[in-house]
Design a protein that fits this description.
CATH architecture of the largest domain: 3-Layer(aba) Sandwich
Mean pLDDT: 92
Strand content: 5-15%
Structural class: alpha/beta
Strand order of the largest sheet: 2-1-3-5-4
Oligomer: single chain
Number of strands: 5
InterPro entries: DUF3226
């Protein structure tokens, strides 16, 4: 039997918080594959629609569903990519490990965000976790602000708005500011006039991430993430 007849799709899957995270990772994977002549393959993304700060119930439920089909689907590698937010890397890793150990029998404890670990002794499946951050804090939008390449007058005015509110003793957290900044960048600063006329179709993050000239996908802040994603190369 020739090799092509016995070859099979490598079943690597990735768990993320949102559709925006999926779009971002797909853009980075495409860039890595084109730049480094690699083949990073993720056959399916599973979206959590956010994650609770303390108990990670949505992550645990997703892992339970994966556990039910692990052997049938021949899943070889599981990646988990979450925002670091305001927690430390150690705190996040501890919570993720607790979820894994509650779901999978005799599961390994994850203590490094740049490695894959054998899930347990009864399977060859590997699992790993990475956190999106800039200088050990933040989330996807924080990273996107860091790698933007175009002038951003509309987006930058968000900081002035925040200062104005602070003068009135109204506090807006950094997470909301970063999200508003990105919204203005992709809706006002970077789309063409034609795109603005069809804002619903073009002025969203999924489309904006296909415009490689408005992001620097070679920025050093992405180095750790790229190293993690390359663990899924075949």
């Amino acid at each position: 039997m020739i090799e092509s007849e016995v070859s099979r799709i490598v079943a690597n899957v990735m768990i993320v918080e949102s559709q925006d995270d999926e779009a971002f990772l797909r853009a980075i994977i495409e860039h890595i594959n084109e730049s480094n002549h690699l083949t990073i393959t993720i056959v399916e993304f599973y979206i959590l629609d956010g994650i609770e700060r303390e108990n990670y119930r949505s992550l645990e439920q997703r892992l339970k569903r994966l556990n039910n089909t692990l052997l049938k689907d021949d899943i070889q590698k599981i990646g988990i990519v979450l925002d670091l937010d305001e927690q430390t890397r150690e705190e996040r890793l501890a919570l993720v490990s607790q979820c894994i150990q509650r779901v999978f029998r005799e599961a390994v404890r994850i203590d490094d965000t740049q490695k894959l670990f054998q899930l347990n002794a009864s399977t060859n499946t590997q699992i790993g976790c990475h956190f999106l951050h800039v200088n050990e804090q933040g989330e996807l939008e924080t990273v996107l602000r860091e790698i933007k390449t175009q002038d951003s007058p509309h987006a930058d005015c968000v900081e002035a708005w925040r200062f104005c509110l602070a003068q009135k003793n109204i506090d807006i957290n950094r997470k909301k500011i970063d999200k508003l900044w990105i919204q203005n960048y992709i809706r006002e600063d970077t789309p063409s006039q034609n795109e603005k006329r069809e804002a619903k179709k073009y002025c969203n993050l999924s489309h904006a991430l296909t415009k490689k000239d408005i992001w620097n996908f070679d920025h050093e802040v992405l180095n750790e993430l790229k190293e993690f994603l390359q663990l899924f190369a075949v």
